[in-house]
Each structure stands twice: as C-alpha cells, then as structure tokens.
Task: inverse folding
C-alpha cells in the first residue's frame, strides 16, 4: 500500500515544475511581444522619417523646377543641382534602413538651394533693370532714327531745291535774218532770198547760288525743210545724242549775260524756222521765226 504523504510530495513537485514552466512561458511570451513592439515602433519611426525626407526632397525639386523655368543664365547650374536631388530621391526609395545620412544630405542641399535661388533672384532683378534700360534705349534710338530720317528727307528736299535754284535761266531767245552789205553793215530782212545771216541771241539770267565759270550752250537751228543748219555736228550725252548748228561758251560770273551769235548761210528756205537752246542735252529755251 502506497504512502499518501509520498504521493502528495510528488504531486506538489509536479505542480511546482509546471508553475515554473508556466511563468517562464509567460515571461518569454511577454519578451517576444515587447521586442515585436520595439521593432514595430522602429519601423514606423523609420517610415515616418523617410516620408519626411522624401517630402523635403520633393519640395527642393519643385523649387529648382520653378527657377529653371525662368530660363536665366544660371539655368545650367540649377539643372545640375536639381538632378542631384532626383538621384537622392531614387536612392532614398531603395533604402530600407536608417535615413539619417539622407537627412544630412537634404540639409546640405537646402542650404545650397537657398544660395542659388538668392543668386538667381538677384540676376533676375539685374536683367529686369537691363531690360528697362534696353527698352528705353530702343525707344530713344527709334526716335533718333525717325528724327534723322526727317532730317535726311529735309536735306534731300533742300538739296533738290538748291540744285533747282542753281540752274541758270535762259531768257529772251530771239532770231532775225540779216542781209550783209559789202561794207559790212547788216540790214534786217524777212525775205529768205535776201538773207545771208541768222542772228540768234539770248540772255543768261543772274543767279547768285549758281556755280560760276565757263558755260557752254548748244544751239540747234532747223529750217522749214526740217534740216539742221550750220555745223551739223553731233554730241553724245550718255545714251542721248544731239545734232547742233553751233555751240557757244560764255564766262559766267553770276551776273546777267547777253549772248549773240551769227549763223551764216545761203539759199535760206521760205517758211518757219525753229531755234532750240540746249544746256548739254537739256532743252532750256526755244523760239521760232518765219522767212517769206
């Protein structure tokens, strides 16, 4: 027969062992739970920090994009810094651990961004001032150009006026036929059969702004049969030619000059004669007369 006291002792021992195991299990389970909470907390913290760093990088990129869009002379440098931000964003997306090093890089990039943006803003201000100055200069130059164009136009008109005014005027062109006596005396006649000489005269008017010096005029006498009388020489003036009866050269000193020349001939035809006076190839005076 078993001893009841011995059985009780064994039962107590088993209970004690089970109690110890239970306590140990509870302790282990608590430790696992605590470690899990710590890991979860660390992961949550890491994710939150990563999102914060990513947000800062996105803001940096947006700031650079806006500055680059202004297309200043610093655009190349701004693009380089923006590309560094984009590269760091890619690295951050791939990372799974501590983001402290990224936070430090972001802080450095933020400081760099502030410096570059400040320089870019100053450059924009300077460009704005230069643009205003340039626009003002363009306006002034435009007004000066218009003023010069007006002056040029006025000078051209004045030159034309002076040129026109400097031309000599031929007045009182007259022609008469004369019979030459053996004594040398000339007797005016209107009969073709008696005429020996045609006397052509004209006056060069006074002109104080004309150029003084020798002046040559070509006189063309055309009879009733449409023949050019006299020398019948031909002179070329560029593309134009002139057949003339005689030419006369006068010393002009800006005073009125009377010119008279005799054209000798014989067998003058009856009818109307036409006398033309040319300054080079320009007709400056004309008249006509008749012989019966």
Result:
């Amino acid at each position: 027969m078993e001893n009841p006291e011995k059985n009780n002792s064994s039962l107590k021992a088993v209970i004690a062992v089970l109690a110890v195991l239970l306590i140990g299990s509870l302790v282990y389970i608590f430790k696992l739970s605590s470690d899990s909470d710590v890991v979860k907390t660390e992961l949550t913290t890491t994710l939150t920090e990563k999102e914060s760093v990513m947000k800062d990088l996105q803001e940096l990129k947006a700031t650079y994009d806006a500055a680059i869009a202004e297309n200043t002379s610093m655009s190349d440098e701004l693009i380089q810094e923006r590309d560094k931000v984009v590269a760091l964003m890619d690295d951050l997306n791939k990372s799974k651990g501590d983001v402290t090093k990224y936070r430090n890089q972001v802080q450095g990039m933020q400081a760099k961004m502030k410096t570059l943006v400040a320089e870019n803003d100053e450059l924009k201000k300077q460009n704005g001032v230069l643009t205003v100055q340039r626009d003002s200069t363009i306006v002034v130059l435009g007004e000066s150009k218009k003023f010069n164009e007006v002056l040029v136009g006025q000078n051209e008109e004045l030159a034309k006026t002076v040129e026109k005014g400097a031309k000599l005027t031929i007045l009182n062109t007259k022609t008469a036929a004369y019979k030459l006596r053996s004594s040398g005396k000339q007797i005016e006649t209107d009969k073709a059969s008696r005429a020996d000489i045609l006397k052509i005269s004209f006056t060069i008017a006074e002109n104080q702004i004309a150029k003084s010096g020798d002046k040559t005029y070509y006189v063309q006498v055309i009879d009733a049969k449409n023949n050019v009388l006299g020398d019948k020489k031909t002179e070329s003036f560029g593309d134009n030619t002139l057949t003339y009866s005689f030419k006369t050269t006068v010393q002009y000193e800006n005073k009125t000059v009377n010119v008279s020349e005799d054209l000798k001939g014989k067998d003058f035809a009856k009818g109307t004669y036409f006398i033309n006076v040319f300054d080079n190839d320009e007709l400056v005076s004309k008249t006509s007369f008749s012989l019966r």
About this structure: The CA atoms of residues 58 and 281 lie 87 Å apart. Residues 4-119 form one domain.
